[in-house]
Amino acid sequence: MEYHFDRVIDRRNTNSLKWDVKENELPMWVADMDFETAPEIQEAIRQRAAFGIFGYQIMPDEWYEAYIGWWKDRHGYQMEREWLMFCTGVIPAVSSAVRKLTTPAEKVLIQTPVYNIFFNSILNNGREVLESPLRYENGSYEMDFADLEEKLADPQTSLMILCNPQNPAGRIWTREELARVGELCAKYHVTVISDEIHCDLTVPGMDYVPFASVSETCRDISVTCIAPTKTFNLAGLQSAAVCVPDPFLRHKVWRALNTDEVAEPNSFAVDAAVAAFTKGGPWLDALREYIFRNEQTVAEFLAKELPQVRLARHEATYLLWLDCAQVTQDSEEFAAFLREKTGLFVTAGAHYGAAGRHFLRVNIACPRSVVLDGLARLKQGMERYLAR
Q1: Domain, as residue range, for 262
Q2: Which of 100, 138, 217, 307 sits between 20 and 30 A of 24, alpha carbons compared?
Q3: What is the pTM for the complete model shown?
Q4: What backbone phi and psi angles, to 5 degrees, belong to 272?
Q5: What angle do CA 20, 23, 24 make, to 5 degrees?
Q6: What is the CATH number of the domain that holds 355?
Q7: Confidence of residue 1 (pLDDT cuts 50, 70, 90)
Q8: What pLDDT, in 10s, does the model give residues 141-160?
Q9: Which of 319, 311, 312, 323 minimizes the C-alpha distance to 360?
Q10: Cβ–Cβ under 8 Å, residues 136 and 170
């Protein structure tokens, strides 16, 4: 089937968070794709809407089977039905787990730069953020295991939030790296929440490794958050799952989700997820190829037109991490300048921790013509910024 990723769809005046911008602005910030979701998902939603009754939902066998089948076929990981729990979103699951698995003033470890909402999930619950900065060398991020162990050894550290694959930089952690994380966390009695929402958006030819699949140690200390929402552009449907193999830990997470009332689906959440994971594979494969070509377009443009800007090693997500160290050490100022002078709206890397202070995060899940427009604005804005 042919998919129309090149089609520009006007999302202004549709109550879109991403496109709630001025007329001259081009939003390439929040992780929201400008593509229609897979036709099979659209049809499932139409059929559900046509029924006309939208009462309380239960979780059917098809929902469990869809998740289990997708992870087995796509990622070689066998989940069990009883491990899975519905949740309205990955971040609600993370925040609920933080509240249930830690106590006030305890430390929750994150590896920065990392998804900025993790900070909110920790701080808003009265816990302390403990950063273990990743090492950035030769355009790529690596875990600093010496620093990680030192901070996990702190008796006040009771939880780690792992981003796998990594957002914003797009690293896919290797089996060996994940195994070492699991061993260290088990050694110091630290539970791991693994946010794997970007796991299906890998560069063609590459796959991610589910944290819980690495070893029995990783499995038994893990709370894995997964969803079709990033992969298939369904964030507004609020549909996700939490996978917890260990029964004692699973009971605590189950109580957390139900206490916070984030364990019940809306009328479309189940049907959309089932359609995505049972029929969406061909669309996803075409999407990954398209996004990869967008990335190549960006890399070629930077090499030719903006050699001062370096693209960090990218293996997953549709978000690019641009190293602007030769341009600025203040990404917030630079991003604000770009938006004011050119209308290009990207995210300042400083939002993801101090380690991101000279980076920009750019969303390339949009038609190629839009990517080229964004690159032209970036060049114009950078030239004006440097000429001040």
Answers
A1: 54-279
A2: 307
A3: 0.97
A4: -65, -45
A5: 120
A6: 3.90.1150.10
A7: confident
A8: 999 999 999 999 999 999 99
A9: 323
A10: no
